[in-house]
Every structure is written in C-alpha cells, then in structure tokens.
Amino acid sequence: MNGEMVYFNYCWLRDNCVISWDSSRQEPTFDILDESDDLHATSARLGNESLDIIWSDGFESRYDLRWLELWHKGCNHGDLAVRVRENWYGDHYSDMARFNYDNVMLNPPNVADWAEAMLDEGIALIQYMPNSDKGLKTLCELFGTVRPSFSGYTFDVKSKANPENLAYTNKALELHTDLPAEELAPGI
Q1: Chain-centre distance of CA 30, in angstroms?
Q2: What is the DSSP letter of 20?
Q3: Strands 27-28 and 41-46
Q4: pTM above 0.90, yes or no
Q5: Nearest residue to 62 via CA among 40, 77, 45, 75
Q6: How far is CA 120 from the centre of its chain?
Q7: How many angstroms separate the CA atoms of 173 and 152, rounded?
Q8: CB neighbour class for 169 (10 Å; exposed up to 12, middle 13-18, buried from 19)
Q9: Do 51 and 10 contact (CB within 8 A), yes or no?
Q10: 27: helix, coil or strand?
Q11: Which of 41, 92, 112, 129 fits 88 for a cystine, CB–CB 3.0-4.6 Å?
Q12: Are 81 and 73 in contact (CB under 8 A)?
C-alpha cells in the first residue's frame, strides 16, 4: 500500500480473519453477530508480510499484506464469486453468449463457461435444445436443484381470451423474476 494511509473496517477485518475459517470445509467458524458492538483492536503490529491484530476480546488475527492490498485496490482476490458484470443493451443479441445443448450436457467445462456467462452478463442462449420440459429441467439441474413453484416445474406462456396477467397475452415479456416474494423464489 506503498506508504499511503489505508483504512479497513474492524468488523470486516475480524469477519475475514483466516484463522476463523475451517480450511477443510471452507466455512466460517466465527459469527460476527456474536461480537460486542464496541469491537476494536487493542494492538496492531505491521510487519514486512503481515498485519497482526489483537482484538478487544483477546483474539489474535494475522492478515497477509498482499491479500489486504488486493482488497484495497478492488482487484480479484482469488474469489470466484467476484465477477466483472457486463452491461448490455438492445443491440446485444448478436454478441450474446451461445452454447450448444449437447456440448453443455456432455462437457463440464462448457457448463462452467455457461455459468460464467450467466454471472457476467445475466443472460446466455442455449441452442439446439430438445423441445421438452424434461430437456429444460435436465439442463437447469446442471446449475442446481430445480424446485417447482405453484405452477409446477415449468410454465407455458400462452395467449388467452381473458388474461389474468401479461403472461397470458400476446405482448412481449421483458426479462423478470417471477414470485420474488416467495420464500424460495424460482431460480434459473
């Protein structure tokens, strides 16, 4: 951080202490909500490679300076969930990520590429997919468990004479999330 003054939030630091993570399960063993409201460092020592902190409850944390610098600069910290989102507009259709159904189903690296496109752009096209509910469900299960809504596993968008909502008209449906107020709103 090259001599400049850098500040990190105490709660964020304590919550991200590597000692408070189970390395084999990659899960936290510490609950920041159990900390007192006056969480603070009683001492801090800056070494050549680490920042060592003793917290008000006596717990000792060590932070690698290179890791802290990456967070400070907003760089990719090795966390696969940190993604660069890409905006797209009405003319994006020709540049949209496209994947062949059979290639995705048979090659795990293609599933990862599809997932990354979905994370980065929020949309991707699967081409040459079977025209069946089973094909759709099987594809979606590559991302996770498919749960039914009150409409079942799938929903047919079709025009009705007396529609109760936009899905039953011949009008375009914009991208949206259905049932966001549900406890388990549908995912992909």
Answers
A1: 22
A2: G
A3: unpaired
A4: no
A5: 45
A6: 10
A7: 19
A8: middle
A9: no
A10: strand
A11: 92
A12: no
- Per-residue tokens: 36: 């007192």
Per the structure block, which two tokens stand in for 112? 């990862």
* 21, HSE (Cβ side, Cα atoms, 13 Å): 12
- C-alpha 105, offset from chain centre: 22
Tell me: the pLDDT tens digits for 135-171?
998 999 998 888 877 778 887 778 889 888 788 888 8
DSSP 167: G
- In the chain, the amino acid numbered 144 is G
Nearest by Cα to 31 from 45, 47, 15: 15
Distance CA 77, CA 140 (A): 29
pLDDT digits (tens, 9 = 90+) for 111-143: 999 998 988 888 899 999 999 989 998 999 998
Measured distance CA(67)–CA(69) in Å, rounded: 5
User: CA separation (Å) from 177 to 18, 61, 156, 187?
Assistant: 36, 41, 15, 8
The stretch 37-53 carries a mean pLDDT of: 93
